[in-house]
């Protein structure tokens, strides 16, 4: 009887951590867009995780860079997951319906409470039939 073959599962993901606390003006947003897209496009990743632990405020202008990144991720067949959102920032994303905390509705972004949970979620999606 032959031994079963080991199956390797890949979950190509890049983790991007925002360091800017206030994402609220055109200059910050343009720089953020360029940096996020540059890092993602240089990576071989399909999925992206955006760690927002440092962000205390995001204005509507701040959604632009995230939506641009989301578009690029989806073009590669991946998903963008936001994690470590502070309660005030999470509320902004929830009110604008860019995330759905219950996970029942299709929102622009997925959201997980921690980086570990975000990685686990993406990897579980990769192995689901």
Jot down its keywords.
alpha/beta; Transcription Regulator spoIIAA; 4 helices; 40% helix; disordered N terminus
Protein described:
The protein has 129 residues and is of the alpha/beta class. It has one domain (21-127): STAS domain (Transcription Regulator spoIIAA), CATH 3.30.750. It has 4 helices and 6 strands. The protein has helices at 26-42, 63-75, 87-95, 115-127; strands spanning 13-17, 22-23, 47-51, 57-58, 80-83, 110-112. The strands form 2 sheets. A 4-stranded parallel β-sheet has the order 1-3-5-6, sandwiched between helices. A two-stranded parallel sheet has the order 2-4. α1 (26-42) packs parallel to α2 (63-75). The two termini are 27 Å apart.
Q: What is the third-level CATH name, the topology?
A: Transcription Regulator spoIIAA
CATH architecture: 2-Layer Sandwich
Our count of helices gives 4
Low-confidence stretches: 1-8
- Number of discrete domains: 1
Average pLDDT score: 88
Strand element count:
6
- Class derived from helix and strand content: alpha/beta
Q: How much beta, percentage-wise?
A: 15-25%
Sheet with the most strands?
4 strands, parallel
Overall form: globular
| Cross-sheet strand order for the largest sheet | 1-3-5-6
Q: Give the name of the CATH superfamily.
A: STAS domain
What is the highest CATH level, the class? Alpha Beta
State the separation between the terminal residues, measured CA to CA. Answer: 27 Å
Radius of gyration: 16 Å
